Hints:
Layout: E1 7-13, E2 16-24, H1 49-55, H2 60-64, E3 69-70, E4 73-77, H3 78-84, H4 89-92, H5 107-111, H6 118-123, H7 136-142, H8 147-151, E5 156-157, E6 160-164, H9 165-169, H10 176-180, H11 194-198, H12 205-208, H13 223-229, H14 234-239, H15 252-258, H16 263-267, E7 271-280, E8 283-290
Antiparallel strand pairs: 1-2, 3-4, 5-6, 7-8
Amino acid sequence: MSNGPYAMGGYEVTADSKEPMTFRVCSALVAGDVRRRSERIRGDSENTVADKLCSGILTPSFLCRRSERIRGDSENTVADKLCSGILTPSFLCRRSERIRGDSENTVADKLCSGILTPSFLCRRSERIRGDSENTVADKLCSGILTPSFLCRRSERIRGDSENTVADKLCSGILTPSFLCRRSERIRGDSENTVADKLCSGILTPSFLCRRSERIRGDSENTVADKLCSGILTPSFLCRRSERIRGDSENTVADKLCSGILTPSFLCRRSEKNTRRFRKYGGRQVMQWDIDPEFSMQA
């Protein structure tokens, strides 16, 4: 597979430390360009689920042939059970594989910032820390993950110990596009930013809202809070001046309001990571710079 100009960093999964999970930012679906994230399927390094989904050649029957095994159930794969109709919610809830080197930030956090399809999520083997029997990804795949259930979750977001992912989920409708402009890195996963994860998930606007990333310079009132209270209107969002680094004249909010910021446009973004720290709300967080060559154009 061609790395193209969208090559990003990656991480490895504990259960299979020798196989890298390489991330690539999405490109626009134009002129047959369907390069996408290259989250690799173990043992199928040349053909990724993401690639096939993007190109339209990943069919249910293909998924049924997958041999990604559920830990402790080596004879029956997730894909097999999904296709045969015997994969029950309780079975999916037994999934429990952890993300390596990211002990504080769970799959739940990453799910907040992506657009994976249920099928794609089902084949993932990432554990949520401290909840080994019931993972968010599993529940999403099985259709039993409701807002009220998520509200009971207590997975914490780094540096925001009083506000849980679930709290934010129950209190907003932050769109994926808006989230994509965030530059908060996931701790212990310095090569994969929120923007990266956004290009690799499924989340609905309301689900993404469970993130507790604050708007810079507005530390007391989050986007989710404003949306919930009814004081954050589309026109209000248009007036926001949260700038994308390297694109100071055109904000994400501006583009959203003008209708020129489409999902495919966001997928063309090429976030370049740097290991630079900056004071943010009284604490130090990592920041990123946008690769000038691929920065947003008005």
